[in-house]
Design brief:
With about 250 residues, the protein is α+β, with helices and mostly antiparallel strands. The protein is about 40% helix and about 20% strand. The longest helix has 20 residues.
């Protein structure tokens, strides 16, 4: 927002898409509006949780089967995320999430999920990389699995049927366009080993961008090396800024 006010070009998504990408409930609502498949969820507010937690727990259990994931709506890096396998784990998981945010998302788990990721680059005509897979050291890709335990590994490209890999790329672009993305994003999916169903999990509008980050590794596997990737993103930022300069900002 500050760069917009200063009328400076910048790499990446604008104010709206960046904000939407931070709020998981708004993000998923937009995905659903565009017909994109994402796991069912319930949104909780701290005010309501403090007043009617028993009723909310019953409502959640009526709508979502266990296991259930509980997440702060506006955080990243898996901070405050829990997997509730049964009733006695649900309330502590929600309390933990509310210690980080006033809004919490409670989401249906995907059976035996594989974690598939895809990188997107572009403005009006975005492109998607080959998909990759994260194989976490823990039950799911929590904070420790990301930053503490070194046992997690990346498989790039992911071992997927060609048709499924094409679906991942197509849906990544659709998710990017659903939030009016620009520049770059990483799109994360959950693929059930038991049913073969593919679910759009979330979009990250400011993914890690070192030479060993998933985003750059996915593009390297797609034939775009790191210097070229940086050049393309800068060119996209300048292109978008130039388009903005063509707009009228005064009636006089």
């Amino acid at each position: 927002g500050l760069l917009e006010l200063a009328n400076l070009p910048y790499v990446g998504c604008g104010v709206l898409s960046s904000a939407v990408g931070m709020d998981k409930t708004v993000m998923k609502t937009l995905f659903r509006a565009r017909g994109l498949r994402t796991p069912d969820w319930v949104t909780l507010l701290r005010h309501d949780w403090a007043r009617t937690r028993d009723g909310l727990v019953r409502s959640i259990e009526d709508q979502l089967p266990y296991p259930i994931f509980v997440k702060p709506a506006n955080l990243g890096s898996s901070v405050g995320i829990s997997k509730a396998h049964a009733h006695d784990e649900l309330v502590p998981a929600i309390d933990l999430a509310f210690s980080f945010d006033r809004k919490v998302i409670v989401e249906a788990g995907v059976p035996e999920a594989r974690e598939i990721e895809c990188a997107v680059i572009g403005n009006e005509t975005p492109e998607a990389s080959v998909p990759g897979e994260i194989v976490p050291a823990h039950e799911f890709y929590d904070y420790d699995a990301k930053y503490v335990d070194t046992g997690s590994r990346l498989e790039i490209p992911a071992v997927l049927d060609p048709g499924l890999a094409d679906d991942v790329r197509r849906l990544s672009i659709a998710a990017f366009q659903a939030i009016d993305g620009a520049g770059l994003a990483r799109v994360d999916f959950l693929l059930s080993r038991t049913t073969g169903e593919l679910f759009l999990n979330e979009i990250n509008t400011l993914p890690g961008f070192t030479t060993i980050s998933m985003y750059s590794k996915l593009w390297a596997a797609s034939g775009v090396d790191y210097p070229t990737l940086v050049d393309r993103l800068i060119a996209l930022a300048i292109e978008r800024h130039q388009q903005k300069q063509q707009l009228k900002t005064s009636m006089f």
